[in-house]
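User: Need the bound-state model for zinc ion:
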Amino acid sequence: MGAEGNVHRIVVPTPLPLGSTNVYVIDAKPITLIDTGPDTDTTLMDLKAGLSDIDLGFKDIERIVLTHGHVDHCGLVCELSKVSDPEILAHEQDKDIIEDFGAASSERFEQCKELLESTGVPSQTLQVLREFMEFLGSLTHICTVTNALKDGDKIDFENDQMDVIYTPGHSSGSACYKYGDVIFSGDSLLIENSPCSVYGGADKKSMGLDDFLDSMRKLSKYGAKLVYPGHGDPFEDIEEHVKIMQKAYEARRDTITGYLEGEGLTAFELMNRLFGNMSIEQVLMGLGETLGHLEILVEEKAVKTEERDGLVYYRI
Ligand SMILES: [Zn+2]
Ligand SMILES: [Zn+2]
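Assistant: Bound-state model below.
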């Protein structure tokens, strides 16, 4: 049996439209969790039940390794830390958002306020987005990342090691972990999602769709047999999956350039054309993906920008 024989998946609920999150337990020395789920009573209960099914309890957790700083993955860290004082490992670029989501996310919101306003997002929607960020903040608490990781670091177990693979794009500090023949991919590789990014550039400024695509290609070269994603069932054949995602990206890019003929559109208008009616969580993702595509197209000089009445219009 390979190292991956020690891996158990526990599916925990979230109060978000995306449904459940996967928490993985590596039952080796030291006993390690990959992600925790958000800080809600039901998540805590289901995690406890899942651990108990494999004869473990919160007191046994010696280490928590996080795939990224979104609260549906790291929110429970603070609560769990109180029980067994585990080591907390995460990529250095997401350390700030994991340790203090409220401060880091409002700083980012202020940073991108001007950009958001120039996209044509109605001020009412901006306000709802801000409230949604506050709600996300309620699903996590202040904690300390004890070990900040970098690409290529090794995480030691008694009998083997796990490799840290830096995969920015979904968030600035997203990381995947290769353990034996499997990769824990967080949200950097999901079976049901098209390529997307939400302010995830490695530079902490850009949307990061190009980083996201680079990270997917990087992951496909590791020769892993199985992917354990942050949401949904495990899947095989990373290379094929990455090809599908790449095609979806190219198809959307073609659709976008088709929409940008003539007078041009604001990013918000373009997002509505692409995705239609969306929930507030989807607006965040939809706008992130739209701006991600536009960022690449402008960089490649395939699309021009034009400012009219304080709004930025994009056209071919
Ligand atoms: Zn995420
Ligand atoms: Zn997620």
